[in-house]
Amino acid sequence: MQRKKLENRGSWSRKPEKSKEEETVKKTLGPVPTDLEGKKAYLEQWALDNRIPGKIQSWYSVPSKSETSDWRIRTQNLTKTNRVLSLEGPYKGAKPPKLILEIDAQIRKPHLQKFRKSILQIWFRSTGDGRYGIAVQNILHTAEAAREFKTFLNYLQHEHANEILCCHQMQVRPVQVFDPAHPTPGSHISLHKGFGSDYLPIAGTGKSYNIIDWTPLAKEPWIGLPKRIREAIHPSKDDKFLECFAGTGYIAESLSPYFDTCFAVDSRKVSRQTPNVRYIQSAIDKEFFPKFFSGKNKEGKWTVYLDPPEGKSLSGNVIPTLASYGPERILLNSSNLTVATMEIKRFRREGYMLRKIIPIDIEPGSDMFQVLFLFVPDRAGLLGRHEERKAKVIKHRENQNFHGEEPSETVHFTQKRRR
C-alpha cells in the first residue's frame, strides 16, 4: 500500500488535512464592509469567485432609525477595581435617542451607586415603534443594591410609563454576559419580574417576541422581511409552511395568512400558541423530518424555511433527509457565505437547483448582512446529474432510507440551458 506524503515533515506543527469539500470553497474577501454599496460589491465578488449559479436579485434594504433599534448599557473593566458603563448602539456612530440618554444619566446618579455597581448590562429591546422593554442583568449582593433597583423601577414607571413597557431582572447561570444573538449552550436564563409582560409587541403587526429572544438590532428591515419572502416565492393558498430554527416564530406567523398550514420549530420551548401557527420544540436534525412528515395531515406542497443561528451549517444528513421528502421550495437564510457555498453544493447534490439569491441588509450600518437562497427541485434535469423530477406531493413514508450514496464526481456550479 502506498503511503501518503506527509506535509511539514520534521515539524510538530502539522496542519490537519482539509476535506475535499473545504478545498473547493474559495476564501471570502475578508472583512464585510458596513456600507450598502460595499456589501453589494462583496457579494458579487463572492458569487464570481465561487461560480455561484443564478442571478442576484435586488437588495432588500430598509432605512433604520436609532429610535427603533436595540441599545445596551454594558459594564467594561478598565482595571480589577475600576469599571465603567458604556453605551452601545446598533452600529458604530449611531446617535442615542433622548430616552436612552435620560435613563443612562439616571443610573449614574449618586443615590443609585450600589445598583450601578451591580450591573453587568442593561438591554433596551425595541418594539420597532419608539417603545422599549428593559432587561437588567445584575448581581444584587446587598440589600441596599436591591432597594436601589426598586427605586430604579419606580423611576421608570413614573417618568417613562408610555415608552418603557416592561423591566425585568435577568439572571444567567453560569454567570456570563448574555447576548441574544450568541447564547451559550447549556446556560440557564431566568427572568425575575419587575413590571410588565415578558413579551413585547412588534410595532403594529399584532405579533410579539419574548424580551430574551434574538431579533436583529434594527427592527424596520426585520419587520418587512416576511413580505419580501412572500414576493419571492408566490405561495398558493393550499401550500404549507415549515419554519426551522424559528426563534420568535415571527416569519411563520406573518406568512400564515398566505398558507394553508404553518409550523414553527425551535429547540427552545415557546409558551404561546397562535391560531394559525403550531409551535414545536425540537432540534433540527436528521431524525426530525421523518417524524414530522409521517404525522397526520402532512401531505401537500411544502415550503421549508431554514434559518440556522449565527450562519452555522446544517447538521449532518439534514439536507439529504429533507430533500428526500421533495418539498416544493427550500429557503436557506445564511449570514456566512463560506458556509453557504458548501450548502449550495449539498443541495445540488440532492437534486435541488438554486433559483434565486436575495441579499438582505438586515442590520444597516453594521458589517453584517444575510442572503436568502431559494432552492427548487430540478425537475427538468438542468443539473445534468439527475433524472427529471415530476411535481411531487409529500405523502406518508415508512422505513425510508435517507442515506443515499454520494456521487463520486466533482460538482461544478454550472447549469445547462434547456434546448
Describe it.
- There is one protein chain.
- With 419 residues, the chain is α/β, with parallel strands linked by helices.
- The protein folds into two domains: 36-63 and 218-377, Vaccinia Virus protein VP39 (Rossmann fold, 3-Layer(aba) Sandwich), CATH 3.40.50; 66-210.
- 23% of the residues lie in helices and 23% in strands.
- It has ten helices and 15 strands.
- The strands form three sheets. The chain has a seven-stranded mixed sheet, sandwiched between helices. A six-stranded mixed sheet has the order 2-1-3-4-5-6.
- Helix 5 (143-159) links the parallel strand 4 and strand 5 (164-173).
- The longest helix has 17 residues, at 143-159.
- The chain is globular, with a radius of gyration of 24 Å.
- The two termini are 48 Å apart.
- Residues 1-18 and 398-410 have low confidence and may be disordered.
Which key features would you list for this structure?
10 helices; disordered N terminus; 419 residues; seven-stranded mixed sheet; six-stranded mixed sheet; alpha/beta; 15 strands; 2 domains; Rossmann fold
